[in-house]
Design brief:
265 residues, alpha+beta, SMI1/KNR4-like, 6-stranded antiparallel β-sheet, 4-stranded antiparallel β-sheet
Length: 265
């Protein structure tokens, strides 16, 4: 399994922990009293917590917590005790064998957990959805949980070049009669987005990059900090350079036909 491809990129830096260490993994297993599944360990070695690219059917969340210090706001840790493990939590609101349920995502009224109730603390856990005292199995292992992710389609028409992202932007600008660049930023989504202004009121073309930093952090002054390491938003399409979307489809279609760009839906 290529575990890097399960993470949504780019991720907000505040949603992830610093890279995990062997010592942290050992300490987490000791604190939780279980052996963490190898698929989970491999996943957080690529990125220590954050959001997945897709969502598992029947599961309400799309995050996997890493290992580190929980912060609010900020990343949560798999070592954070669930409310139903608090001593004063009502017994009728607790799942059975709660000590063998290790949550890695939560929405307040639900939790997604590694479920060791059948395997025991050193076995291979399943994955279960917990709502109060009710526990429902959603995958027989964490590896199968990941493999059942449904990845949503990246919006926009895909551009396969020829040329780099900057060359794609230049070709489209020329085909659109040197359309002015309204903005060129990573701030909103972490991936580079160039906005071209078309004639008319509120008419735009957005050109978004496939390759992007693996994380970004917004600063109060409106700037961004970007990771040096990069990845593809659509790793199964390494030849894709950019994604196009617009408020004026006829104008963009006509412009594309005046270039040598290779595109498809």
């Amino acid at each position: 399994m290529d575990f890097e491809n399960y993470w949504s990129v780019p991720s907000l830096r505040d949603a992830t922990h610093d890279p995990v260490t062997d010592e942290q993994i050992d300490a987490a297993e000791h604190s939780l009293g279980v052996r963490l599944p190898q698929a989970y360990v491999s996943l957080i070695r690529c990125q220590n917590g954050g959001y997945l690219r897709g969502q598992v059917p029947r599961a309400p969340g799309n995050a996997v917590w890493g290992i580190g210090e929980s912060r609010v706001p900020g990343p949560q840790s798999i070592t954070t005790r669930a409310p139903w493990n608090w001593e004063d939590y009502p017994a009728d609101s607790c799942p059975p064998d709660k000590a063998l349920l290790v949550r890695f995502d939560s929405g307040g009224h639900w939790d997604i957990c590694l479920d060791y109730r059948r395997s025991g603390p050193t076995g291979t856990p399943g994955v279960s959805l917990v709502r109060g005292s009710r526990v429902k199995s959603i995958a027989s292992s964490f590896e199968k949980y990941l493999s059942s992710l449904k990845v949503p389609r990246v919006p926009g028409r895909r551009v396969y070049g020829p040329g780099s992202f900057d060359e794609v932007v230049a070709k489209l600008r020329e085909a659109l009669a040197d359309a002015p660049v309204n903005s060129d930023t990573h701030y909103d989504y972490g991936y580079r987005t160039v906005t071209l202004q078309l004639p008319g009121e509120h008419e735009w073309v957005w050109i978004c990059s496939n390759r992007c930093p693996i994380w970004w952090k917004r600063q109060p002054d409106g700037t961004t900090i970007l990771s040096e390491k990069t990845a593809l938003r659509l790793p199964e399409e390494p030849g894709c350079v950019a994604f196009l979307s617009t408020t004026n489809s006829p104008a963009l279609t006509a412009a594309r036909k005046r270039t040598d760009l290779i595109t498809k839906r």
